[in-house]
Structures are given as C-alpha cells and as structure tokens.
Design a protein that fits this description.
The protein has one domain (about 5-190): Flavodoxin domain (Rossmann fold, 3-Layer(aba) Sandwich). By secondary structure, it is of the alpha/beta class. α1 links the parallel β1 and β2. The protein contains six helices and six strands. Strands 1, 2, 3, 4, 5 and 6 form a six-stranded parallel β-sheet that branches. Bound molecules: ligand FNR. Ligand FNR binds near residues 19, 20, 83, 85 and 123.
C-alpha cells in the first residue's frame, strides 16, 4: 500500500490584501503537524456570482469554479477562515459555497468532505456568528464539520506583527491544537466513511 500524506485545502473568506483571516491561514499552515500538506487556495475573486444560467451554459463550471472544485476534490480536508460581515459569513464565501454545493464533473465536492472552520475579526466576538452561519451551510452541503476544538480570534489587529506574522504565543498554541485536532478529525471520519 502506498502512503499518501494528508492534504488540507484552505480558503479565506476575505479578498482584502492584508486580511487577518488569510494571515491566520498562513500561520496555521506552518503549525500543522509534520507531514501534513497544507495549501491555500487564494483565488475566490475569480469566481463569478452564482447564476443557474451560467451553470447550464457551462456544465463543467466557469474556469475559476472548476479549479476550486478540482482542488477540493483532491484534498482530504477543507479548512475555512471566515471574517464576520454583519453577523454572518461574507458574500464572497457564501457565493463560493453555492457553486461548490452543486453537482459537477468532480461530484458534489463538499458532500462527505471533512471540514473545519475558524475566523478572526477586529472586534471582541471573534466571528462567532459568522462561524455559526458557515457551519449551517456546510452541514446543508453534507460536509463533515469538526465540532471541536473551536477557535474564535477576537481583536485580530493585536495578534500579528507589522509583517503580518503571528505574534501571540497563546494563539499560536491554540492554532497548533486546532490543526492537530483537525488532522485527528480527518482520520476519524475517513475511517468511519
Ligand atoms: C465588518 N466587521 C465586523 N466585525 C465583527 O466582529 N462583526 C461584524 O458583524 C462585522 N461586520 C462587518 C461588515 C462589513 C461589511 C465589514 C467590511 C466589516 C469587521 C471585520 O471583522 C474586519 O473588517 C475584519 O478585518 C475582516 O476580516 P479580514 O478581511 O481582515 O480577513
């Protein structure tokens, strides 16, 4: 039997250049258990707004959607870092999930896929409501969302240095536990599937 390392694909729900959530994902990638492959898919801006007419015109999906579906289908787990906009996930993320929820040449890529969510916000609540809305949609799409550990990063502006690197040892420890927990979750639900 050939051994294939566990692969985690990451999405940030923000298009902002200096996004705290993208920075969090970069930190998570460096803190993942050794031997785990972590890739950040940073092209959500290439996805058009979901439209059933577009879907019918191009059964394989627009190029950006097709690339995202292919990347997720090749991954053992999907990790999403969500900002909070008006007490919910941002539209850019919901739009991506609407595309991903549909039948495609790669299948329904969220169905049965292990997933984990976390998020960072500038305010004091650390994306609690955004994560709740994101979990609800992922469940609806059949993703197997890790129940715990959870990670809500509040006051994100105080957690990184001027270069955008994580500069909070407590958060670093929490992030390490989160990544180890996600790998354990992937192994657990993959065995159960
Ligand atoms: C926000 N922000 C915000 N923060 C929060 O804690 N709860 C909220 O409901 C909202 N709502 C909200 C709406 C809109 C339209 C914007 C632009 C922002 C602030 C948000 O947490 C902050 O902009 C983060 O920095 C966004 O994440 P990124 O882009 O840094 O990853």
């Amino acid at each position: 039997m050939t051994y294939r390392p566990i692969r985690i694909l990451c999405l940030a729900g923000s298009l902002r250049r200096d996004s705290w959530n993208r920075r969090l994902l970069h930190a998570a990638a460096t803190l993942a258990p050794s031997g785990i492959m972590v890739e950040i898919f940073d092209a959500l801006a290439a996805l058009p707004l979901f439209d059933e007419d577009l879907e019918q015109a191009e059964p394989a999906g627009p190029a950006g959607v097709n690339a995202l579906r292919t990347a997720i289908a090749a991954a053992d787990g999907l990790l999403i870092a969500t900002p909070e906009y008006n007490h919910a996930m941002p539209g850019v993320l919901k739009n991506a999930l609407d595309w991903l929820s549909r039948e495609s040449p790669q299948g329904e890529v969220l169905d049965g896929r292990p997933a984990a969510v976390f998020g960072a916000s500038a305010g004091p609540w650390g994306t609690r409501l955004a994560q709740a809305s994101l979990r609800q949609v992922l469940h609806t799409c059949g993703a197997l969302v890790m129940p715990s550990p959870t990670l809500f990063v509040a006051h994100a502006g105080q957690r990184f240095d001027a270069q955008g690197r994580l500069a909070d040892p407590h958060l670093e420890a929490s992030l390490s536990r989160f990544m180890a927990g996600f790998v354990a979750w992937i192994e657990r639900v993959a065995v159960a599937a």
